[in-house]
UniProtKB/TrEMBL annotation:
Protein name: NADH-quinone oxidoreductase subunit NuoF
Iron is among the record's keywords: yes
Pfam family, one: NADH_4Fe-4S
Domain of life assignment: Bacteria
Record-linked SUPFAM superfamilies: Nqo1 FMN-binding domain-like, Nqo1 middle domain-like, Nqo1C-terminal domain-like
Keywords attached to this entry: 4Fe-4S, Iron, Iron-sulfur, Metal-binding
NADH-ubiquinone oxidoreductase 51kDa subunit iron-sulphur binding domain boundaries: 328-373
An example Gene Ontology molecular-function term: 4 iron, 4 sulfur cluster binding
Homology family: Belongs to the complex I 51 kDa subunit family.
Length: 416
């Protein structure tokens, strides 16, 4: 069930060290990379159907095509390693076990979009991973893999800077991330009307997730066909899926898209731990609508199938919930996180998160009535599609789905 492309070297002892990485195929895409024109690399990535792994699943190649033609302005690649979504812990595996696949992916992507500087934005608390990453970058500079030339022979400059974020979930949202990188408060920017690249200090930039960038060397080396032989037609390739909660083998497993969620739970996840019965799964970090145990039986792990079943694949980080958990507690736990993390820029989000948090407190204290459940759904409605970024719609997705699918558990509290 496991298909290793990005995680190929994860189990090799000292896989994070340059020497071991080189002995196990890292940087082997670079010679081929420089036989290709930048636009050919982008075209190959577009053909591969590689989709962003940061949550939205946007096609990667077409996004690179939004970069304007090269001119005198600097151009940037920004790698999103903020990874603050509850239930999501896959990018950290790359930092820990194969930081060189990320550096290799950065070289490939910088060549494709003709950027000479990449920033890796990583959550400041992840000290261990930051140290690992910095160590690998220093090794790569010392070995002249990056810097003024690539691999000490290709006349193309790539510098990499690691930037530690202050520890705010919203700074994973790409435009808030750029604001933060520019030294400002991490507030998301208004979206442009049409499609365009991102702008960093007014210069063109592309933002991609750590895993997305780490998937690129394989596509360069083996071509689009090497990637599309895995996965489904519309969700080609693989993804680092994570599973946490009361399962026997929680962890991160790379699989091709298209496997059944229940098989993932039972085979790689090892099934529920003794005495626990599955109640629900939040499929891709807490920002996705929850699935009941019945829905889990039908769910297939690709973007289209997950939309068909009324949820999303998100970051592929599955949170398993068992029958002994109260869904009111689950909803309260989740809303406390969002209430704390709302950046406060948009009123529906700032006020809505706090309002739902307060009502759920009242439910737990036995002070709420069934009218209050309707108020939660009304507040969710007010938060949907009326804010600068999709933080508030994501809150609506998870909270409304819990209230609607597990309403009877909330009603139990009104009888007390
Ligand atoms: C509140 C919020 C938090 C996000 N956090 C992350 C994150 O930690 N890492 C990430 O790659 N994308 C995150 N995203 C998605 C980014 O905005 C962006 O779509 C992504 O980095 C693009 O990369 P990709 O196309 O390679 O997935 C977040 C989005 C929102 C709305």
């Amino acid at each position: 069930m496991v298909t290793r492309i990005v995680s190929k070297n994860f189990d090799i002892p000292n896989s994070h060290k340059l020497e071991v990485a080189l002995a196990n195929g890292r940087y082997s895409s670079i010679d081929k990379l420089f036989t290709m024109k930048p636009e050919e690399v982008t075209a190959e990535v577009t053909k591969s159907g590689l989709r962003g792994k940061g949550g939205g699943g946007a096609a990667c190649g077409p996004k690179w095509e939004l970069m304007p033609p090269v001119d005198e302005r600097p151009r940037y690649l920004i790698v999103n390693g903020d990874e603050s979504e509850p239930g999501t812990f896959k990018d950290r595996q790359i930092f820990q076990y194969d930081p060189h696949i990320l550096i290799e992916g950065i070289i490939c992507t910088c060549w494709a979009i003709q950027a000479n500087h990449a920033y890796i934005y990583i959550r400041g608390e992840y000290k261990f991973f930051i140290d690992r990453l910095n160590e690998a970058i220093q090794e790569a500079y010392k070995a002249k893999i990056i810097g003024d030339k690539i691999m000490d022979k290709y006349d193309f400059k790539v510098d990499i800077t690691v930037h530690r974020g202050g520890g705010a979930y919203i700074c994973g949202e790409k435009s808030a991330l750029i604001e933060s990188l520019e030294g400002k408060r991490g507030h998301p920017r208004l979206k442009p009307h049409g499609k365009e690249c991102e702008w960093f200090y007014g210069d063109p930039a592309t933002v991609n997730n750590v895993e997305t960038i780490s998937s690129v060397p394989n596509i360069v080396e083996n071509g689009a066909e090497g990637y599309t032989k895995y996965g489904t037609e519309k969700s080609p390739g693989t993804m680092l899926f994570a599973i946490s909660g009361p399962v026997k083998n929680p962890g991160v497993y790379e699989m091709e898209y298209g496997n059944k969620m229940i098989d993932f739970l039972n085979i790689l996840g090892g099934g529920m731990i003794e005495g626990k019965k599955l109640k629900a799964i939040i499929p891709g970090g807490t920002s996705c609508p929850i699935l009941t145990a019945d829905e889990v039986e039908r769910a297939v792990l690709d973007y289209e199938s997950m939309w068909d079943i009324g949820s999303t694949l998100g970051t592929g980080g599955m949170i398993v919930i068992d029958e002994s958990a109260s869904m009111v507690d689950v909803a309260k736990n989740i809303i406390e996180f969002y209430h704390h993390e709302s950046c406060g820029q948009c009123t529906p989000c700032r006020e809505g998160c706090g309002w739902i948090d307060k009502i759920l407190r009242d439910v737990l204290d036995g002070k709420a009535t069934s009218d209050d459940l309707q108020t939660i759904l009304d507040v969710c409605d007010t938060m949907n599609g009326k804010t600068v970024c999709v933080f508030a719609p994501a809150v609506k997705d998870i909270i409304a789905s819990i209230v609607i699918k597990f309403r009877s558990e909330f009603e139990e509290y009104f009888k007390k």
